[in-house]
Design goal:
InterPro entries: 2-HAD, HAD-like_sf, HAD-SF_hydro_IA, HAD_sf, S-2-haloacid_dehalogenase
Radius of gyration: 18 Å
CATH superfamily of the largest domain: HAD superfamily/HAD-like
Organism: Pollutimonas nitritireducens
Strand content: 5-15%
Keywords: Hydrolase
Order of helices and strands: EHHHHHHEHEHHEHEEH
Protein name: Haloacid dehalogenase type II
Low-confidence stretches: none
GO molecular function: hydrolase activity, acting on acid halide bonds, in C-halide compounds
Helix content: 40-55%
Structural class: alpha/beta
C-alpha cells in the first residue's frame, strides 16, 4: 500500500462531543437551556445522510457540506421549536462552523504523524476543503493532501467518491487503503477495489452506541486505534 485515506467524522474526530460543546454555548446565549446539547448534536447529524442523498440521486446539484450543514441546522433547531428568524444570523453561521473545530481522538495525531513518514495520508471525507483545512490547522492533523467530496464531486458511499480519489492519487486501487470506523464505508471502498482498514470508535455515538463496535467483514487490516495501525503497517527496524 502507498496511501491511507481516512473517513473523518467519527473516525478521525469526535463530532458528537465537539458539536455538543458549541451547541451548549449557543443554547446558553439564547436561553434555550431545555435542549440537551448531545441530543441536539445527534439530531443535527441525522439530517446529514438525507441531505447528501439529494445530491447523490441527482435531485440537486453537488452542494458542499458547509451549505448542507447550514440548511440542516435551521431544520434541526426548528424541530426543537426554535424560531430561527429571531436568532442572530452571524451566531447561526458561527455554530454551523463548529464542524470546522472538532477535536481528534487522542491517538490520531501521533498515529498519523508516524504513518506520514512512509505513506501518503489524506482525508477521504464528505467535508468540503475549507472545513477540512480549518479542522486540520486547529487540531494539528498532518495531512499530505485534502481529498474528499468537493474534490471528487461525489459523496460517499457513491462509487465515484472512491474511484476518483484513486485517480487523483495516480495509484492502483489496491495501493490505496480506506480507513474508517464504519463498516458500510469500507464495504463501498472494497467494492471499488480499495484496500480496507477498520478502526473501531465505540464512543462516536455516545455510551449507548450499538453499531460498528467490531468489523463485520474480513477487512485487510483491523486496528485498535491509529497508533496500532501504524504499528501494523510501518516497516520494522
Amino acid at each position: 500500500m502507498k496511501a491511507f485515506c481516512f473517513d473523518v467524522f467519527g473516525t478521525v474526530v469526535d463530532w458528537r462531543s465537539g458539536i455538543a460543546r458549541e451547541a451548549a454555548g449557543f443554547f446558553s446565549r439564547y436561553g434555550l437551556a431545555g435542549i440537551d446539547p448531545y441530543e441536539f448534536a445527534a439530531a443535527w447529524r441525522t439530517l446529514y445522510q438525507p441531505a447528501m442523498e439529494a445530491c447523490r440521486s441527482g435531485k440537486r446539484p453537488f452542494t458542499r457540506l458547509d451549505i448542507l450543514h447550514r440548511e440542516n441546522l435551521v431544520v434541526a433547531l426548528g424541530n426543537y421549536g426554535v424560531d430561527v428568524a429571531q436568532l442572530d444570523t452571524n451566531a447561526l453561521d458561527q455554530l454551523n462552523t463548529a464542524w470546522h473545530r472538532l477535536d481528534p481522538w487522542p491517538d490520531v495525531v501521533s498515529g498519523l504523524t508516524r504513518l506520514k513518514q512512509h505513506y501518503i495520508i489524506a482525508p477521504a471525507s464528505n467535508g468540503n476543503i475549507a472545513l477540512m483545512v480549518n479542522m486540520a490547522k486547529r487540531a494539528h492533523v498532518p495531512w499530505d493532501a485534502i481529498l474528499g467530496a468537493e474534490v471528487t464531486q461525489a459523496y460517499k458511499p457513491s462509487p465515484p467518491a472512491y474511484t476518483r480519489m484513486v485517480e487523483i492519487l495516480g495509484l492502483p486501487s489496491k495501493d490505496v487503503c480506506m480507513v474508517a470506523a464504519h463498516n458500510s464505508d469500507l464495504h463501498a471502498a472494497r467494492e471499488c477495489g480499495l484496500s480496507t482498514a477498520f478502526v473501531a470508535r465505540p464512543k462516536e455515538h455516545g455510551p449507548q452506541q450499538a453499531s460498528d463496535l467490531e468489523p463485520t467483514e474480513d477487512w485487510d487490516i483491523v486496528a485498535r486505534d491509529f497508533d496500532h495501525l501504524a504499528d501494523l503497517v510501518l516497516p520494522k527496524n
